[in-house]
């Protein structure tokens, strides 16, 4: 019996992890690994957020970890890239992947939102919190 190839589902250009979580191969494991990278970045830089790679496979999209710092002189919030990671291996990608802006969604999720998402994945029947990150 031949295995039927499922056509690759495109990722919307403005997706977040929450938008594609239903497409992920192993959603809890994927989000847990992303959260590990976010926590490492937050320890190093005091902040962390994640943008989804929108040009790869929806089952395990690459992701970009960033942090935001306020410029001491101008008080502008400036986003800095920490590292990009393979969605399938969770290994760091070469810096050239980061530079291609069209690879990444303009929408990010902060570490709090990703923590809430893994909580919902691990316990889908829990009553939703009044502090939900849904708009």
UniProtKB/TrEMBL annotation:
Report which superkingdom the organism of origin falls in. Bacteria
Name under which the protein is recorded: Uncharacterized protein
Organism of derivation: Mesorhizobium mediterraneum
């Amino acid at each position: 019996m031949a295995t039927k190839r499922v056509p690759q589902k495109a990722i919307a250009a403005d997706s977040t992890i929450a938008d594609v979580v239903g497409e992920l191969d192993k959603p809890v494991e994927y989000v847990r690994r992303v959260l590990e990278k976010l926590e490492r970045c937050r320890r190093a830089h005091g902040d962390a957020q994640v943008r989804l790679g929108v040009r790869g496979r929806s089952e395990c999209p690459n992701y970009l970890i960033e942090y935001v710092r306020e410029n001491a002189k101008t008080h502008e919030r400036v986003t800095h890239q920490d590292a990009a990671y393979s969605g399938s291996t969770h290994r760091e990608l070469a810096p050239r992947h980061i530079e291609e802006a069209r690879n990444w969604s303009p929408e990010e999720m902060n570490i709090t939102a990703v923590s809430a998402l893994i909580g919902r994945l691990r316990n889908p029947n829990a009553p939703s919190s009044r502090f939900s990150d849904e708009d």
